[in-house]
Write a structure and sequence with these properties.
Helix content is about 35%, strand content about 25%. The protein is of the alpha/beta class. The protein folds into two domains: about 190 residues, Flavin prenyltransferase-like (Rossmann fold, 3-Layer(aba) Sandwich), CATH 3.40.50.1950; about 200 residues, CoaB-like (Rossmann fold, 3-Layer(aba) Sandwich), CATH 3.40.50.10300. It is elongated. It starts with a strand and ends with a helix. The chain binds flavin mononucleotide. The site of flavin mononucleotide (FMN) has 15 residues, from helix 4.
């Protein structure tokens, strides 16, 4: 396990650094935290001290009770200079969140605080995870500072697009998921130590790739006001769209009754019913390289929806005849061209789920089926977490429970390995 120095600067996303520190500690890493003075307005030292079990430093001149040692290590018998000793002992420095101000200071080589001084003295891998308002992120000064840092070998974990921490704000600038930041840090440490060959850069590996995502749940009218629907919120599909955008893809999102905002970088086609979704998917499919069919599309729809509102009066009951809808995915699979990757999603319930997913894979001739056992509490429909099994002709990959964004990244990793295999076969 590694010694990770986490620098927290003063943005709203500082609260997410608590989760990063918690995850890193839980993963068995020895963690020390340094904070900028501005960050204290957002999260106090006591929180990080409680989670790491080690003192948190802010001021360059304040004595470090641990004398630069990481949890589990002996402290030296002299009092070393903190900003030098902490980075001498660490395997990686990660600044999360990295404010626009701190990025500028790091790019300019400033050393006017414990964090910036430590960063300047750091010979271990440095990872920064920026988070800020989208206008600040898009500003040429920030763009140039990030490019300068990346050019010097600093690993940048780009922010995500979506609702920002400050109320009512939306755009690019949301701190990356703490699990993703931690995975990047682990990769940076492994690369430096030569523990395994340097992996391909995880970003932007979908540049130039056209990704079509369907998300949400269709609603099939019973009459003018009622419908047959399902519990899908669209969160998983939106997370896939977000992650694909972050990895450089061109994304079209066919959204059926989404309960969450689609990412601003995607081209969105709004639909309501299975028939509308089918028409939109058929129109968009020929141009896509990857289809991620995450929407919950009704298998059956009322055969003869009433034009007005059905009246209650004079009825003992109401029988609605349902007729099967078109199997959109099977229809698209029949029209696929070489080079396209098709991924279906199967929300199965309980026993036999894996067999059903395998059958779906073969029957519809898909490249992968993402299986979601919706009988498990806390995951799947309308939840923020998910846990899936990606089923391919080669076998299965279990993606452990985590936020849907992290699960989406893992699914895209599988898509990339399917695409890589396909290009080996048909170069
Ligand atoms: C409520 C509030 C929220 C802020 N959120 C951010 C933010 O998310 N990202 C950012 O770059 N700056 C943000 N700032 C501005 C920074 O706090 C400010 O630039 C500060 O000087 C950063 O200092 P530091 O980089 O040394 O921590 C925010 C300011 C306020 C008052």
């Amino acid at each position: 396990m590694a010694r990770i120095l986490i620098g927290v600067s003063g943005g709203i996303a500082a609260y997410k650094a608590v989760e990063l520190v918690r995850l890193a500690t839980k993963a068995g890493h020895a963690v020390r935290v340094v904070q900028t003075p501005a960050s204290l307005a957002f999260v106090g030292k006591a929180t990080f001290e409680g989670v790491t079990g080690a003192p948190v430093l802010v001021d360059e001149l304040e004595p470090d009770p641990a004398r630069g040692a990481f949890p589990g290590d002996p402290a030296p018998d002299h009092a070393p200079i903190s900003h030098l000793e902490l980075v001498r002992n660490c395997d990686a420095l990660v600044v999360a969140p990295a404010t626009a101000n701190t990025l500028a200071k790091l790019a300019g080589g400033h050393a006017d605080s414990l964090l910036t001084g430590a960063a300047l003295a750091c010979r271990a891998p440095v990872v920064v995870a920026p988070a800020m308002n989208d206008a600040m992120w898009d500003h040429p000064a920030t763009v140039a500072n990030v490019a300068t840092l990346a050019g010097r070998g600093v690993t940048v974990v780009p922010p995500e697009t979506g609702s920002l921490a400050s109320k009512g704000e939306w755009g690019a600038g949301r701190l990356a998921e703490p699990l993703d930041i931690l995975a990047t840090v682990a990769r940076a440490i492994a690369e430096r130590s030569g523990a395994r060959p340097a992996p391909e850069p995880a970003w932007p590996d979908l540049e130039g790739v056209s990704v079509l995502v369907t998300a949400g749940g269709t609603r099939e009218p019973i009459d003018a006001v009622r419908y047959v629907g399902n519990r899908s919120s669209g969160r998983m599909g939106v997370a896939l769209a977000e992650r694909a955008l972050a990895r450089g893809a061109r994304v079209t999102l066919i959204g059926a009754n989404l309960a969450v905002e689609p990412p601003s970088g995607a081209r969105v086609v709004a639909v309501a019913t299975a028939a509308e979704l089918e028409a939109a998917a058929r129109a968009e499919f020929p141009d896509c390289d990857v289809l991620l069919m995450a929407a919950a599309v009704a298998d059956f729809a009322p055969a003869a929806p009433a034009a007005g509102k059905l009246k209650k009066e004079g009825r003992d009951g109401l029988a609605i005849e349902l007729a099967p809808t078109v199997d959109v995915l099977a229809a698209l699979a029949a029209e696929r061209r070489p080079g396209q990757t098709l991924v279906g999603f199967a929300a199965e319930h309980g026993e036999g789920a894996l067999d059903h997913a395998r059958a779906k894979l073969e029957r519809k001739r898909l490249d992968a089926v993402v299986l979601n056992d919706v009988s498990r509490p806390g995951i799947g429909f309308d939840a923020s977490d998910n846990e899936v099994t990606v089923v391919t002709a080669d076998g299965t990959v279990d993606v452990p429970r985590g936020p849907k964004g992290v699960v989406a990244s893992a699914i895209l990793d599988e898509v990339q390995s399917i695409r890589a295999q396909a290009s080996e076969v048909n170069p």
